[in-house]
Amino acid sequence: MNDVVYFNGPVQNGDFTLAERPGKAAGIRLAEALNALLGLAPVPHLWNTVTLAGDVRHRCAADRDTVGRQQREERTLAAKYAPGPPPAAGLLTDTDPQVIALAMTRVQALLADGTLAVQDLPVGLCARCGHMAGTGTAGDCRACGHRTIRPARRALLVFDRPAHGPVLERDDFHASGARTPDHLLHIARNVPRLLVLSRTRAHGVDLAPLGLEGMVLDPRAGLHVAVLAAAGELGSVRPVMTVTENAAANVAAYGAPFRRHGAMRLRYALHGKIPYATAASGRLYEVHRAQEVRDLFTGWYLPLCAARERSGVSAARIPALLKFLRRAYLARPATPPGDLLTDLRHRVAAGDMRWVTDARALACALSDRENTSGPTGPTKGAP
């Protein structure tokens, strides 16, 4: 079995392409770069397709009677990578058959051991479309816009979190040498005591076999299962999911019951956002005579820097980081020193990202990258 393997936190399949929104691919690029440094083959790109916005988009589409929801998601995903091809390792979504099968296996096991339960609870339902608006009756329906939310009772899949210990701890982060953000632990401690893990969606992991007709597994839980399913196919027992701090704060509590399966234990690798608008400036590369490393900078080095600077890469830092990369690129050895490469791989496997601002370590990483994937590397021209 492989040990550590990095996967991107599943990206929501919204109305954008990766060429238009390169920041959406930061976690994908980071996982690719780290896995390559570990000498691993590329892994699938992971996508979140269980969204209310996707339901609404499909329902409002003129061709909804001839194009199914699954087919629409597949078309939208293919368009994400235009004008280039999809990734060689393929895509995996949170509704692929292996993900659904694993999700139901996990849910049934968690119901059996009492971690999860099905409870009849008061909810607010849209008077027109039946969408579950939560436990209150205020506001408009987010699914159809109707203004009347009626009180009702409904059986729901729930997780009583205090009964099972903290939903997020420092050990849930894969970050040797980095401080765990205390605010994430605080946010996780202050989510509702009873977390509802079933949602009214037209697309997702169907919970009808549990008697929850018209409901699917909450996508915040499902995206963890997608990572576990991808890891299981590769034989990894230590999958690491790349994710921003905001995303971790949003999904961690709901994913708590789904971060383990058998010998597998999922952890998070945090990364910040990247100011791609600044990094896209052609003038930047002209001024610093760095046109040769432009794709390397945007597609490889900046994602690695984002894992080092987890609160976000400052736009003001872009010129300095570009100059640093260019110097390391020019100083890269023809063959990476064996002892330095071994140390670098240990640090990558441990989640220690301090090496990205170490000139010798970066030059070693660049040499290894060039020797294993050619001068352009796997991210040349890729989203």
Question: What would you say about this model in short?
Answer:
It is built from 13 helices and 14 strands.
Question: Could you explain how this protein is built, in words?
Answer:
This protein has 383 residues and is of the alpha/beta class. Helices cover 39% and strands 17% of the residues. It has helices at residues 26-37, 52-60, 69-80, 97-112, 182-189, 219-234, 245-255, 276-279, 282-287, 294-308, 318-330, 338-350, 359-373; strands at residues 2-8, 11-12, 45-48, 91-93, 116-126, 132-134, 149-160, 194-196, 198-200, 215-217, 236-243, 260-261, 264-265, 267-270. The strands form five sheets. The protein has a four-stranded antiparallel β-sheet. The two termini are 29 Å apart. Residues 376-383 have low confidence and may be disordered.
